[in-house]
Structures are given as structure tokens and as C-alpha cells.
Amino acid sequence: MYLNKINLFLVISICLIFFFLTYNDVKSYKIKIIDGDTIHLNGEKIRFIGIDTPELKQTCNKDNKVIPCGIEARKLLVNKISNNKVKCKRKGKDQYKRTLAECFVNNLSLSSYLVRKGYAFAYRKYSKKFIDDENYARVNNLGMWSMKFEYPWDYRKKN
């Protein structure tokens, strides 16, 4: 009987160790927001998978005014994260060795949020996941959809 309890304890301990070693989520404690789709989370550079936001230096035009839409996308992300914990689900690495992930605040996808607000685009080249969010923003004339803009991937090619 005593040996069975020890064996049970060992099996549970091994299972818990295995679980924590293979757990694929990162819960934030130290975060730095680089731009609309890139953060540093506990020292790890994370690029949001499936979306593309304007570059920090990228501008848009609305009513003959220049709008810093790259900065606006970053501000939107900063405000959404605020003092909340960020939880990310890793999906791999990109060509720049950044971790590709979908990140969440209070179970809300930050990628979905940014696209739905009109400050990010579904990056169809890599994913079709956020197309409905993009259509919502476009139809409702939200964010960059209310302005004259260049898609981020086109802007990067020129600059």
C-alpha cells in the first residue's frame, strides 16, 4: 500500500513536470510594445501571426490631413493591453527568427481586435483567419478604412 502511494506520487510528479515543460503558452510579466504587430514578451520578440499593421513611419491621409497610422496602430495596441497580462500561443518562427504567435488579453485576440478596429489587415499571404474582421472594419469604414492608405506590404516594398 505504501509503495502504491509512492508510485502514484511519482507518476503524478512526472506528468506535471512533462506538462510544464511542453506547455506552449507564455504569460506576460514584462512586455514592450514595439509596433502594432510586434511585442517583446519576457525578452522574446513576438510577431503577431496572420495580420499586418502599418509601419511606425507610415502615414495615411484623411480630409487632407496626414495621420500617423503606424503610430495610431501601436497606440491602439498599447491602450488595449494597458496593465493586462498578455498570453500568447506560439505557432513557430519567421525568417527573422521572431516567434510567430497569436496573443490574447482577457481571452480576446489582439490580432482580431486590431483588424476589426481597422488598424491591421488580414495577411492573406500567410493566413485567412482574420478576413471576416477585416471585412467588418472595411464595411463600417473603421480606422484606416476611413482614410487613404497604402497596405503595409506595399509600403515596405517602396521604403
Descriptive overview:
With 159 residues, this protein is of the alpha+beta class. It has one domain: OB fold (Dihydrolipoamide Acetyltransferase, E2P), CATH 2.40.50. The chain contains five helices and eleven strands; from the N terminus they run H-E-E-E-E-E-E-E-H-E-E-E-H-E-H-H. A hairpin with a 5-residue loop joins strand 8 and strand 9. Helix 3 packs parallel to helix 4. The chain starts with a helix and ends with a helix.
Layout of helices and strands:
Layout (H helix, E strand, L loop, with lengths): L1 H21 L2 E3 L3 E5 L2 E4 L2 E5 L2 E2 L7 E3 L2 E3 L1 H13 L4 E8 L5 E7 L2 E2 H7 L4 E2 L8 H9 L12 H7 L1
Parallel strand pairs: 4-9
Antiparallel strand pairs: 1-8, 2-3, 3-4, 5-11, 6-7, 8-9, 9-10
Helix pairs in contact: 3-4
**What's the architecture, going by CATH?**
Beta Barrel
Mean pLDDT: 88
Number of strands: 11
CATH level-1 class: Mainly Beta
CATH fold naming: OB fold (Dihydrolipoamide Acetyltransferase, E2P)
Q: Nearest-angstrom radius of gyration? A: 20 Å
